[in-house]
Amino acid sequence: MRARIEDVAATAGVSMKTVSRVFNHEPNVREKTRLRVEAAAQALNYRPNPSARSLAGNRSYLISLVYDDPFAGSAYVMEIIVGMLQACESTHYSAMLRPLEYSSAEHVVSVEDSVAQYRPDGLILLPPFADDIKLLQRLDELGVRYATISAKAKDARVGTILDERKAAAEMIAHAVSLGHRRIAHITGPMAHSGRAWRLAGYRDGLRRAGIDYDETLVVDGGFSFEDGIAGARQLLDLKLPPSAIFAANDDSACGVMHEAFERGLSIPQDLSVFGFDDTPTSRQVWPSLTTVRQPCRDMGRIAAEQLIASIRDPSAGQLVPVPYELQIRQSTGPVPTGTPAKRR
């Protein structure tokens, strides 16, 4: 027969309430007691009943990741999901993925409907949802706990954040150190906070190097492979094309590389390409992509851990800064000498 919570309590010599507190990771349980309960549960092969657990604690033990549907298949989102699942596994929570259309005028209502239908204990919000003031205010009104990832709002409270502006500036400094002066940028999507931070960092890097900002070298883009192709076409068709292109993310950077190869250009001999995120793709393409390592998996894990901590204790949960690191690879090299390579 399946072991019951009563069996674990009897074996450990504690109350059923104490067993419940141990498995719910609640504070104020002595370490010796916790170890005794865990040993008893392991000996009896006890597994908590999710339904009974939810009823007893008036919780769903479910957290939901809310992200913009167009980015559902991106490597960035997938890495966030893996990290979130790691945190859920270690805390006995379940995870739900909720891709929604941010471009819809009803996106706040969509999130509200999702909360009402599935009743998660909390939400993890990716940009642009993480930066939507109306959405955040509505969640506060409803008493729904949430964590944000890479939010640009100064009053973000729980989740993770990375200094994308500083990272982008350092990437431009690296390009300058290779001799590049005509450095272009393909931006991220308008609604995404990464666009603003990375564009600001690009401009910071140019200013510190004494290079004037040239608006013709900045094109609107997005986070897809196709966005990179479109941006590269616009930039490489300039009368004097750039010698280096900094794309807002790795997928877009791969699109730049594709378009360069279509034109018969060599990377990095004719064109240096920079990305952002350090997704698996950046290491799988050839030449491998110079990029900013954003620890997406760690960010998903930490955001989930901080959210669950705040669910258990309203005074807990923090906004945790995470480090970045430049990954210098084969897609970048010294500025070409002589005239720019021929364009098709």
From TrEMBL:
Residues 3-57 form the HTH lacI-type domain. One of its GO terms (molecular function) is transcription cis-regulatory region binding. PROSITE patterns: HTH_LACI_2 (PS50932). InterPro entries: HTH_LacI, LacI/GalR-like_sensor, Lambda_DNA-bd_dom_sf, Peripla_BP_I. SMART domains: HTH_LACI. Keywords: DNA-binding, Transcription, Transcription regulation. Pfam families: LacI, Peripla_BP_3. SUPFAM superfamilies: lambda repressor-like DNA-binding domains (SSF47413), Periplasmic binding protein-like I (SSF53822). This is LacI family transcriptional regulator.
